[in-house]
Specification:
The structure holds two protein chains of two kinds. By secondary structure, chain A is an alpha+beta fold. In chain A, about 50% of the residues lie in helices and about 15% in strands. Chain A has helices at about 5-25, 25-35, 40-50, 70-80, 90-100, 105-115, 230-265, 275-305, 310-335, 350-360, 365-375, and strands at about 120-125, 140-145, 145-160, 165-170, 180-190, 195-200, 205-220, 220-225, 265-270, 270. A four-stranded mixed β-sheet of chain A has the order 1-4-5-8, with helices on one face. Chain B is α+β, with helices and mostly antiparallel strands. Chain B has three domains: about 5-100, Orthogonal Bundle (Butyryl-Coa Dehydrogenase, subunit A, domain 1), CATH 1.10.540; about 135-240, Butyryl-CoA Dehydrogenase, subunit A, domain 2 (Beta Barrel), CATH 2.40.110.10; about 260-395, Butyryl-CoA Dehydrogenase, subunit A, domain 3 (Up-down Bundle). Helix content of chain B is about 45%, strand content about 15%. Chain B has helices at about 5-25, 50-60, 80-90, 100-115, 115-125, 240-260, 270-280, 290-320, 325-350, 365-375, 385-395; strands spanning about 135, 150-155, 160-170, 175-185, 195-200, 205-210, 220-230, 235. In chain B, strand 6 (about 205-210) and strand 7 form a beta hairpin. In chain B, helix 4 (about 100-115) packs antiparallel against helix 6 (about 240-260) and helix 7 (about 270-280) packs parallel to helix 9. The longest helix of chain B is centred in the last third of the chain and has 29 residues, at about 290-320. The two termini of chain B are about 45 Å apart. The chains are: A alpha+beta, B alpha+beta. Chain A: This is Acyl-CoA dehydrogenase. Chain A: Keywords: FAD, Flavoprotein, Oxidoreductase.
Chain lengths: ~375, ~400
């Protein structure tokens, strides 16, 4: 387990931090919201592609930069700091990982260069209820000669409103709740029978509900072994959870820095409010939580690169801890700013709204506590 | 600091491994119960005779204090070499040969602030475990506000004369010597404090154990009545003791919390998740039946894991030459919370089995858990209360100022 960045990783981190600070600040998200863009920005996507961020996990032979998960974590933290709405989690992490871990050589050659170049974005269409539940898939995939026919519905698909290709999890065997019988399919956005309902979400990033009504998928678009999709899904989800935890850490740090600054400028009773012990202790506790979560995120990121066998446990640790931390910090950010924190003009609300979406995606803290307990055999 | 090449380190590792193989008695490679811990000093009984041999051998190598300079009896190892020694000891499950406030707290401060004669006089006996030290800091009127201490130290020409009272002196009744904060100037607060050393057998020293809510007595009240101390036993400048005191507190906080107040492994106590499985029961999938308790135990275990990863991260970053003061400052606070939460959950999971006190009818481990739960309440008080620690984070790390 390594907690110290290499020189290359440091450089990437600096690049990412400067990029989101200068090009994608919270103000940018606010502009996207106010102009009705629902978190979608093609220019930003091009810039991310030019910087090579889509190919961080993708090996050089497929046109990526092959820097690994610790490196991607730095980019995710940077986007979390400014709440930047980008396709990186779904495409650079989840999409790339699904194809790298589950794809045939032909699929890798077909899809990975397109992801690395920013030509296509992907979105995982898994959950069907209001809570993350990887085995709760009821969407059916029925054999139809040269492929499968998909019928079902997916809820709150992150990036679903703009993704070019969906990674749809459907059931080829068994029933909702079964681990066995899941299969992953690559479904292009323009597939016949696929309906995308764009959602306006509280965090202004947007999302989509999907309806699959007799969508035909060729065998060449099956990702991984039929019926054994769960074995592929788990490591892919864990990479997504870890990357998302890194993003959440970034959001927590930025919200805390904003609050820390306010404590040192706002005066009441003739004193800086940061001189009141009640507020000092709240700040010190937030700082402590952030320090602890930083360690969990670093450990989980490096566990991917080192292919450690406690990856699942570390992923749940990182996601749960990051969820609790961003929850605490975003709430305290509003409270410690007082009235100004309740106004739409201030950024505090953006952090809190985004925090709740981050917390729910890929499993809440409660989901991961349960998983952590199961992995620890109680 | 000397630089070790990987090849040099590996050569050193081989040397250490061979030496340990020859010199660490087999019985010193087994888990240790609390009454087998060796604290050294005049009163040490060495319950297991092998532990005496083990201490002597390690002490002669200077490996009880691996990074202290050789001229004071230390091992003279670089930080990397010390790490190798630690790893090799862990590999064979070697017991620490010596527990010692001299090693953890006083020695490092004396190396920094003592004069040559004092270092030569006191450090080798710490390394060899011949002198057991105690810490005279808190007083009845000076707890969190330590600098308010009143124990009087008067200059009587050829000696100092000490009068006053200390409290919460850990193991004062077992110690040979004390390092003590005393007031040499009553007109100033912080600048009127000196750091002085004396023998606990000096005339006028009296100790009285304090019985805690847990039933144990690790602390004493300590009384000084006209205690005469030779003048060469004052460390640093007269009235210059506060800076030494603060440095020593840093050593204390990091040694208290490095292991998160010690592990329960090998003690006969089980973790909260094990107690929940036994006493609350599980469903057919092996899940603890009380879902609320199960979630809180998982939350605690995650906190503990986050804590351990943070200690590790801080160590790695320090090794890489990065600034880690920020991280270190939260360790004591987090360690206290973690340990208290663990014991609360153990007691809750044990149900009435966790509410025994002594005698028959209760599991031995469960009774230890009950006592440990009570003892853990002190974790957020001793060595700086959690509130004081949060003040330190707010002021020193976050730069938040006091009222103007």
């Amino acid at each position: 387990m390594t907690f110290v960045l290499t020189e290359d990783q440091e450089m990437l981190r600096d690049t990412a931090m400067n990029f989101t600070r200068d090009e994608l600040p919270v103000k940018h998200l606010r502009t996207l919201r106010d102009s009705g863009k629902n978190g979608v920005d093609p220019d930003a996507r091009n810039q991310l592609a030019e910087l090579g961020f889509f190919g961080v996990l993708i090996p050089e032979e497929y046109d990526g930069v092959g820097m690994g998960m610790v490196a991607l974590g730095q980019v995710m933290e940077a986007q979390g700091r400014t709440l930047a709405s980008t396709p990186l989690l779904q495409t650079a992490c989840i999409g790339a990982s699904a194809i790298l871990l589950g794809g045939t050589e032909a699929q890798k050659k077909e899809w990975l260069p397109k992801i690395a170049s920013g030509e296509i974005t992907t979105a995982l269409a898994l959950d069907e209820g209001t809570h993350h539940n990887p085995t709760g898939v009821a969407t059916e995939a029925e054999r139809d000669g040269q492929g499968y026919t998909l019928n079902g519905a997916k809820k709150y698909v992150q990036d679903g409103h703009h993704a070019d290709v969906f990674i749809v999890v459907a059931r080829t065997f068994g029933e909702a709740g079964d681990t066995h019988g899941l299969t992953l399919f690559l479904v292009p956005r323009d597939a016949k029978g696929l309906t995308v309902q764009t959602l306006k979400t509280v965090d202004s990033h947007g999302a989509a509900h999907l309806t699959l009504d007799g969508v035909h998928v060729d065998d060449s678009h099956v990702l991984g072994a039929p019926d054994k999709g769960h074995d592929l899904l788990e490591p892919v989800l864990d990479r997504g959870r870890i990357a998302l935890a890194a993003e959440m850490l970034g959001s927590s740090i930025a919200a805390f820095e904003m609050t820390h600054e306010y404590l040192q400028t706002r005066k009441q009773f003739g004193q800086l409010i940061g001189s009141f012990q009640a507020l000092q202790h709240r700040a010190a506790k937030m700082f402590t939580e952030i320090e602890l979560t930083t360690s969990c995120v670093s450990a989980a990121l490096s566990a991917v690169d080192e292919q450690r066998n406690d990856l699942a446990e570390l992923a749940s640790l990182a996601k749960a801890r990051a969820g609790e931390t961003v929850h605490l910090v975003s709430n305290d950010t509003v409270q410690l700013h007082g009235g100004i924190g309740m106004t739409d003009d201030h950024d505090a609300g953006f952090y809190m709204k985004r925090a709740r979406v981050q917390e729910a995606l890929l499993g809440s803290a409660s989901f991961h506590r349960d998983r952590f307990a199961r992995l620890n055999d109680f | 600091m000397a630089y070790d090449s990987p090849a040099e380190l590996e050569a050193f590792r081989a040397e250490v491994r061979e030496w340990l193989e020859k010199n660490c008695p087999p019985s010193m490679r087994t888990p240790m119960t609390e009454d087998e811990v060796v604290w050294g000093g005049r009163r040490e009984k060495f319950k297991n005779p092998d532990s005496k041999v083990w201490l002597e051998r390690m002490g002669e190598k200077g490996w009880t204090a691996p990074t202290w300079p050789k001229e004071y009896g230390g091992g003279g190892l670089t930080r990397d070499q010390a790490k190798v020694l630690e790893q090799e000891m862990a590999r064979i499950h070697a017991r620490p040969p010596l527990f010692s406030f001299g090693l953890w707290m006083f020695g490092p401060a004396l190396i920094e602030f003592g004069n040559e004669e004092q270092k030569k006089r006191f450090l080798p006996d710490i390394v060899m475990g011949r002198t057991r030290w105690c810490q005279g800091y808190s007083e009845p009127g000076a707890g969190s506000d330590l600098a308010g201490l009143q124990t009087k130290c008067e200059d009587k020409g050829d000696h100092y004369l000490i009068n006053g009272q200390k409290v919460w002196t850990s193991y004062a009744d077992q110690a040979d010597w004390i390092f003590c904060l005393v007031r040499t100037d009553t007109s100033k607060k912080h600048e009127g404090i000196s750091f002085i050393l004396f023998d606990m057998e000096s005339e006028g020293v009296e100790t009285r154990p304090i019985k805690l809510i847990s039933g144990s007595s690790p602390f004493c009240e300590t009384f000084f009545n006209d205690v005469k101390v030779p003048k060469d036993q004052l460390v640093g400048e007269v009235n210059g003791g506060w800076k030494i005191a603060k440095r020593l507190l840093q050593h204390e906080r990091s040694s208290i919390s490095a292991g998160g107040f010690g592990s329960t492994r090998g003690s006969g106590m089980l973790g909260p998740e094990e107690y929940a499985k036994i006493h609350v029961g599980t469903d057919k999938d092996g899940k603890v039946l009380d879902g609320d308790l199960r979630g809180r135990i998982a939350d605690h275990m995650m906190y503990a894991k986050a804590f351990n990863l943070t200690v590790k991260r801080s160590g790695e970053q320090a090794k890489a030459g990065q600034e880690v003061g920020h991280t270190a400052s939260i360790i004591k606070y987090a360690a206290a919370k973690m340990n208290q939460d663990k014991f609360e959950l153990m007691i809750e999971a044990l149900g009435t089995e966790g509410l025994g006190w002594e005698g028959e009818g209760f599991d031995k481990g469960a009774k230890m858990a009950t006592r440990g739960w009570l003892r853990s309440k002190g974790n957020s008080i001793e060595g700086g209360t959690s509130e004081i620690n949060l003040n330190v984070v707010a002021k020193r790390v976050l730069g938040l100022r006091d009222h103007q």
